[in-house]
Design goal:
The chain has 6 helices and no strands. By secondary structure, it is mainly alpha-helical. It is globular and about 35 Å long.
């Protein structure tokens, strides 16, 4: 086996291939709306996420923090959107 192939399979074996896929999926979910990834195509995002997970640039801790931050911002956005100003105006007029 060549050195490149051996190094690649060792990095995958540390996490396990299914763990790499799960982490890459979560990383894609967390990062797809950021400025860095906004202009990438789907295949480019997938390739970048897998590379970042396999290389260790995106760790499980980083991914969890990014997902938590995304949920937090999504929650605050939906709460703000839950108050419909038009309905409040209508209630005030009645």
């Amino acid at each position: 086996m060549s050195e490149t192939k051996k190094a690649s399979s060792n990095s995958t074996n540390r996490l396990g291939r299914y763990e790499v896929v799960r982490m890459a999926r979560d990383w894609i979910i967390a990062m797809k709306d950021t400025e860095e990834y906004r202009n990438f195509g789907q295949s480019e995002i997938v390739k970048q996420a897998i590379e970042e997970v396999k290389s260790g640039r995106a760790t499980a801790v980083d991914i969890e923090k990014a997902l938590a931050a995304r949920k937090k911002t999504a929650g605050s956005t939906s709460e703000a959107g839950a108050k419909n100003p038009e309905k409040e105006i209508t209630k005030g007029e009645k």
